[in-house]
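Hi team,

Filling in the usual template for the complex we talked about on Friday. All components are listed, including any nucleic acid strands or ligand strings, so the model treats them as one assembly.

SUBMITTER: L.P.
PURPOSE: interface mapping
COMPONENTS: three
RESIDUES: 1207
SEQUENCES:
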Amino acid sequence: MTATIEVSGATRAYGDKRAVDYVDLTLEAGRITCLLGPSGCGKSTLLRLIAGLEPLDEGRVLANGQDITHLPPEQRDMGLVFQDYALFPHLRVDDNVGFGLGSLPTVERRARVADLLGRIRLGERGRAFPGELSGGEQQRVALVRALARRPHTVLLDEPFSGLDSHLKSEVREATLAILRETDAAVLVVTHDAEEAMQMADDLALMIDGRILQRGTPQACYLDPVSLEAARLLGEAQVISAEVSAGVAQTVFGSVPAPGHPDGGAQVMLRPNALVPGPGVEADVSEARFVGQAWRATLTVGEVSTQARLAHQPGSRLSVSLDPAAARVLA
Amino acid sequence: MSYRLTPLRIGAILAALIAVVPLVAVLVTAAGQPGDTLTAETFWRYTRTSVALVLLVGGGTACLGGIAAWLVALHDFPGRRLFSWALVLPMAAPAFVVAYGYASLFDVAGPIRTAWRTAFGWDPPLEMRSLWGAALVMTLAFYPYVYLTLRAALISQSSSLAEAARTLGLNQRQTFMRVILPLARPALAAGMALAAMETLADYGATSYLTVQTLTTGVVRAWSVFYSAAEAARLALPLLATAAVLLWIERAGRPATSETGQARWRELPRIRLKGGWGWAATLYCLILIGLGLILPLGWLASLGWRADNELPRLIEAGRNVLIVGAVAAAFTGGLATLVALGTRQGRFLPRLLSLGYATPGAVMAIGLLAPAGIIWRAFPSTVSSFLMAITLLILAYASRLMAAALEPIDAGLQRVGRSVSAAARTLGETEAGVARRVELPIASGALFTAVLLVFIDVLKELPATMILRPFGFDTLAVMADYYAKDERLGEAAWPSILIVLIAIPAVIWLTRRVSHSRPGDRT
Amino acid sequence: MIKRLSTAALLASSVLVAACQPQATETASSQADCVPSTGGALNLYTARHYASDEAIYAAFTCATGIAVHKIEFRAPELLARLQAEGASSPADVVVIQDAGAMGEAANEGFLVPFEDATIDARVPEQWRDPQGRWFGIARRARIVAYDTQRVRPEEVDDYADLASPRFRGKVCVQTSDAVYNLTLMSALIDRWGSQRALEWARGIVANMARQPQGSDSDQIRAVAAGQCEVAITNHYYFLRMAESDDAADRAVTEHVALAFPQINGQGSHFNLSGAGLAAHAPNRENAIRFLEFLTGPQAQGIFATETNEFPTTTEATMPEDVAAYSHHAADPLPLPAYAEHRAEAQRIFEQAGWR
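RESULT (copied from the run log):
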């Protein structure tokens, strides 16, 4: 069964603080939605509200149009992967995976558990206890345990945060592959922008209990609604500009600003917005190697910004502004 | 890693020796020449009674204490916060005091059965001087062990496991049965093991309630045949059982291998509505009422009608306060040495725990032998008051070392290894780290240990009885004499005084426990 | 009521206050009006723990200026401590309220024989150890309390009656853990032989109204409550209840009376509190003065008045309620028999199933 989950006006307050503040969110069957936000923004609380682990103060949760706001968690048909995996330490791996399959006949249950463990290449470890598995293995077990009941919705709470960085991308790929095989609506809560963009079909940006922006990763990255939203997804520089007749003029070049009123404005530049080429001459004051690229500080007149460029500090460089990597902020 | 004898380790070994000597003495005594003894048949009867009593008390404490912990840790109802520590108060009443109260209250000529006979014309089968009665009395006296351990386990359980179960399709009740309870089962077993150990080692309550167990059998063999060897030999199965129970209790400790970054979140409490809430309140009230207020109240009313020897009481109270305080501080110090010096090894602490689980009468035999060596070697010390008090304090230390070791050990485990290592790299010695880092962090645990020993000294009987100097009474000794002389009213005074002195200590202990949460620095 | 309340408050507070100002701990007998003078000291190991004894120590200190230092033990612990201390023992005098345990102390060599004309003159030979190691200082009869409405006294004038079918399901008695039962059984073994003693024990077990339980006072209360018709008890518990301040206790004795059954028609079983000179007594002279004092009219009178025990000397004055029973003859059992039959008594109890 597939489902569309609609959250509308969801609000949850702890004392005076609204952890989730009138949030709308839709999860589509077969699509992965990533909820990205800094720690403490309320994204895990929102996930718990959807799962039914916390009551809503206001708002509703609908599944296929049916109101499930007051349904207890066990009746919601949602799988949840916890940040700490929450594997039952007193049960073996296969009993963990088969935990929610009590209603199935034994034979079928065993077959399904074996199948799931096989898919995460842990077919041999079914009789082990969770404590005997590595972190990556535990994560995979937690994932298939959540999938075992073939829920219409799968919720993942920071599913990779406990893993070493060299493991992350590999486990992420494997997780994505498994999630893609299901038709479930998937919500991944994370604070890692790269992870979010890599996994998401749809992205939702959350800060201070509110969702700032929703859209595809590309749209969110390139067309952020605010500087905060822009910075959630990656490096962003801000320089001032003058808008005139739908064009914002900066010291580095111009950016289209359709619909913006004339006058002062701010322009957000991604690191790749300035490229060597015919344009303005900029002073290069500093350049550092930062892994896959160089980062240089460029100055024109009194305006400085950073760009992903390699050049000798102390020299001058001609750069042009790529309008596709720059946006005028409202 | 090679084992180096640092000053700390030498100190630990010396401290441990004090507690090991009596155990060795028991074994040596048991190997002495055989004499007349109880017949095998009688021995088996005692064994059966002991087993039955342990099973009944184990089951009883699991039910009463378990339900109390379940209510307080997982539910909200009127008075919950008060009950969360008040439910431990019966711990202040020694089992023999509870036994005095119940035996007299439910005597065939006591108030309840007399009133019943007058009203209904037949005698209700409410005999406390029976296996069932003893099981009831000891369940009421020992349920706090189960309550404390189980509640601690429930409180420290992170909610994510229970939540995982909910998202996997289990309702509240199924989640409790399949996840919360199984996870807390080791703690339940540990609490039951403690209660079972206390039951096995008890002499005061069982003998007063005329239930003949292995422990009363040990005393009987001793008092009939005057053979310490026979008594020690009879005690060996008790020691073996105690070792097994200790092992169960140790195994019940929560393993520290948790997945690190988990955000710990308390299990949600269910609000009990209306009648159910008041039923929970009533349950807790009844438990405290039966465990403390009813027996103590009845004893108080008996004491009211009886004379008291005020000067003797005051002196006995003063004695036990002073000696108890000194012994508690001394024992706490020794246990700290052992805990610090054996942080790599687990064997020694376990061996020492055996002393705590050994019936007092047997320990008395073990304590007397080394004392005798000192007396014979230095005859002039025998009548020295100071020497006798010193021996008595050493005896308390060796009997109660394990009681102190437990919390101190746990407190030190909480000092992260990296913290100690950091201090070492900053130029501190092992002993310096202990003094400047580990002990300050574990100071709360140290105080807990000292209080536990103090409470135990208040109730201690056999070692006091056999080793004390001339003219030295304690409250427990006085209570025992009056009770043996069938003057319960007079026995009530020292009994109540014991409880009154113990209550503040118990309250402090339980408040500390109820405020400690995983991750707390205590 | 108010007075009691303030007593309790005073008690609690004074314990705390006293704890804050530790003084040299004196013996508990410091409540004596007389202060010990130059008479030296006396070390007493006693298994008795009665107010009467405190009064006697005080009187002794008054009369002699000798301070009494005492430790109260239970009998097995007293013997174990003497054993552990060996020749270093500070004990001068040993007192135990059971003839069996006293005999055992003598047999273990913890007591030394001593000759003392005063004691020999005061205490009849029957209450003295033939080897002169110890002697009786007070007597307690282990006899029968019966329901006066259902039992006639002549129905219980022999211990054997208690085991007869007449009392099927009507007998209350303590467990065989109770040392006084053990000593009674030792006496019966000596008088009747093992076989008859065993049959008697079986008869008692068959006659028990309930499993053995509780103290002697509890047995008397059970008679009063109608649970049984006869109970085996020491005599003084009954006297104590009869003169109690507690109306409930006095009511118990309204329809209960004491009967003094016979062994072989020669007298009732009297257990002894014994006293002896410790083998390594450092204060031997004081010890002997104390032992003499215990047999003097003052001490004997205190035993009778305060503890309702029967004196072992002939000239002691007794309160009326004790005197009323003092004419009952005692079974003339030689004292060593008690310790001698102890193990056998235990075996018989086990065989008979007397818990």
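MY TAKE: The CA atoms of residues 35 and 118 of chain A lie 29 Å apart. DSSP finds eight helices and 19 strands in chain A.

Thanks, L.
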